[in-house]
Amino acid sequence: MIFRKAVLLLAAVAVATGLSAHAQVGVYGMFTVDRLSNIASSPLPQSSSPANVRSNSVDPLGGTGGVYYDFLKLGPMKLGVDARGSILTTKRGAYVNFDGPGARIYSALGGVRGAFHTKYAPLKPYIQISAGLGRSDYGLFGTSSATVQSPNVIHNNFQYEGLAGLDIKLLPILDWRVAEFGYGGLAAFGTYSHNYPIKQVSMGFVVHFP
User: 93: domain range?
Assistant: First the structure.
């Protein structure tokens, strides 16, 4: 019995050591631009005034920050998890004839990622699937009136994204995130349920350990 426990303990230590040998933690910051679309057909109340005609998309921009942990090596891929948050805004709302209320997207997402080893070591491509809470006003006023400009109503949404990007090693602990491309959407909750597709482009820098 003691021998069996000792063997199991050694096996557990070996597995943990093997995982930690390949584990990597990274922290990143990026400049991000989104295109949020399908706004013209939004079910949110709309005035019949021609001045209130909606355009179909807005382009908020801002910052994304996050952290990832790659913990398991599977052939040429390292499997990990990622958590990130974004604050994106623009002064141009979803109206054709005037700027309107601007537009905002606030995101908190978690997901899984796979980073790939290449023949040219400084190149580090990765793919990722993330989901979580996305809050937005879709660039629309909180009322159906173009003249009564009430404060923006920020709506809760289920946000989902598929992402692909490329990091290039600059220093032992510093990578340049050349580009990250994403596609997903905001799925609104409640009475005005609707899908707002998102296209996303980001770039920035990554600090990683070890």
Answer: 25-209
